[in-house]
Amino acid sequence: MKILLADDHGLVRDTLVAFMETTGEFDVEAVSNFDQAFERVQKDSQFDLVLLDFKMPQMNGLEGLQRILALPSAPKVALISGNASRDVADAALEAGAAGFVPKTLAAQSLINAIRFMAMGEKYAPLEFMTAEDEKPSHPLAEKLTAREMQVLEGLTKGQSNKEIARDLDLAEPTIKLHVKTLYRKIDVHNRTQAALVAKEAGLF
């Protein structure tokens, strides 16, 4: 997957690039401001995902996001930020962003988020997006993203990955990735165990 990262903070930029490159899945190019990112996207429309730091020079808030999305053959674009509010995240998603990624995410969660968005899925961490709302009522629900909860519900219904993918309008490999991730988060090893845990918790 070809990724463009734009962030003006050198240490953060290098760390994010290192995280992505360790997987062997990503071909990452990094720039330090919005104008450089805009120029690269104009010259090369083959990026699977563009990650824009919300506070970097020339970004002008959501204006930078909107400028890239308005380009012909615009790539998927997501915001990354260390301190943006939930309102900013909501506005970015409403404007067509592929997602919103807090820089506070753990390394593996960050990689999963980038992978999901590059595959065409929207991403925003549930714990961030619901921070000002009522918290999930069960500790198990707090471990999972909104999408993982949807996939887990499908498992409790005995659905196959293909059926879950059809219901959620996603690719089957994306569902497989979600299933693997939620197994790890709730400490189970197969679909039956996942369904039992969810039912015992009263989630569905």
TrEMBL record:
The modification 4-aspartylphosphate is found at residue 53. GO terms for biological process: phosphorelay signal transduction system; regulation of DNA-templated transcription. Residues 137-202 form the HTH luxR-type domain. Keywords: DNA-binding, Phosphoprotein. InterPro entries: CheY-like_superfamily, EvgA-like, NreC/VraR/RcsB-like_REC, Sig_transdc_resp-reg_C-effctor, Sig_transdc_resp-reg_receiver, Tscrpt_reg_LuxR_C. GO terms for molecular function: DNA binding. Residues 2-118 form the Response regulatory domain. It comes from the Bacteria. PROSITE patterns: HTH_LUXR_2 (PS50043), RESPONSE_REGULATORY (PS50110). Pfam families: GerE, Response_reg. The keyword Signal does not apply. This is Transcriptional regulatory protein DegU. It comes from Pelagimonas phthalicica. The lineage of its organism: Bacteria, Pseudomonadati, Pseudomonadota, Alphaproteobacteria, Rhodobacterales. The gene is degU_4.
